[in-house]
Design a protein that fits this description.
By secondary structure, this protein is an alpha+beta fold. About 50% of the residues lie in helices and about 20% in strands. The chain has a three-stranded antiparallel β-sheet, with helices on one face. It starts with a helix and ends with a helix.
Amino acid sequence: MDMYAENILFHYKNPLHYGELERASITVADSNPLCGDKLEIGLQIEDGKIVDAMFSGEGCAISQASASMLLDEVIGKSLDEVKGLEKQFVYDMLGVPLTTNRVKCALLSFVIVQQAVDTFEL
């Protein structure tokens, strides 16, 4: 198994930032009915920066690992930095080729985070 696949399994079995964020500034949920993935992401935003983030939900290894890895990356970033991220950031972060069916799994957390930062009112 290659390093990237091992990393995905690690994040799936030991997700970072998993749970409910009690002091969330905004919480957004979405799902991927094709795979049964369901995620809810809470972001704590202070002075235009994401200072904490947590996710909960269930789904395949790709969706759960992607959420774990993405939240680890966005904590500490400004809302503008997060808004500037593109889908390719997630693909590069995961580092494995994705089938067409797995793209939605990989991007679910990204879509939720983008929706959260787009709708958050300073």
